[in-house]
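hi! just following up on the protien thing from before. the input was this:
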Amino acid sequence: MLLLSLESLGKAFVPKKFTPTLRNFMLKAGYDEVPYKFFGFLFYLTLVITYVVYFIWIYPHLKDLNSLILMLGTFGFWVVCQLGVAFFIIMVIYFFLDIRIYKRKRELESRLQEYLALVSTNLKGGMSFDKALWAAIKPQFGILAKEITLVSKKVLTGNDVGDALLEFAEKYNSPILKRSIALLVSEIESGGNITRVIDSSVEDLQKANILKAELAASTLSFTIFIMAIVVIIAPGLFALSLELLKIVTSLSATVGGSLGGGTGSFSSPISLSFGGPKVEDFRRFSILAITIITVFSSMIVSIVEKGDIRGGIKYIPIFLVSALVLYFVCVFALSHIFGGIMNI
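and the predicted 3d structure came back as:
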């Protein structure tokens, strides 16, 4: 009963005109159904979060005001907070689904050449095109095997093979897949030599893969240079700057105190007060700056290597952890080195 109410609530929050777009997006991510139950659960989750935030941080400031202001403030905060929390959760989920779609597309493209070569072999062995598609399905093809299985089932139930293939191609934002399927469908409709077209597509895919490998190899030095800056040079410079700031602050306090703390009526005409940033503020700034540099550098490396930002998500935690660990190690080492010098 609860699941039914969650599904009904979820459907109520999704406009009907957005349902086809949402379903197409979920299909690209590998989900056959729109998760209306999750949308209903999301409503209750945001409701609970808003309730907790309101009574812990907002209500204590509103309870002493008059009833009208209390009512209007409560209503305004409740609407804004719940919508904001829901939007944040949806954006996070969209981000992970988009990464999942990208990974599925990359896996499918990596298997396409091998699969088409096997289809061509089956056609040369005397099979019909639909049977060649079915016979070429192997477990190692992963996502591509599942998609072609669906295409074959549609063909066996009476659907046109061209329409089934085009519907499959539209599920993925892959120019390589769409071009290969479009050539196949065009050749099927014209009654031409399908084997020749498949062999040509296989050859083009092989050349494209070789070209991608050569481009990745040619940009290796650039990638190493970025990694060296992000993981080694930037943390070291920030750690050195932090230690120099500590020294300047300490010297300013020591010299200023010795000049102004003497006996008698002597007063120094020189002011050595240090008006720069505080040590703790610069420490927080360093960590924030390293984090930002790491994220954007990972995106640059991803664009150089993969041609897409989404391919660099895996680099972010690696770069970030390495840079922060080296930063704290450098801070610890420099503090002992300069601390020993200052105590001499």
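DSSP finds twelve helices and no strands in the chain.
Residues 110-213 form a domain with the Receptor-associated Protein fold (CATH 1.20.81).
cheers
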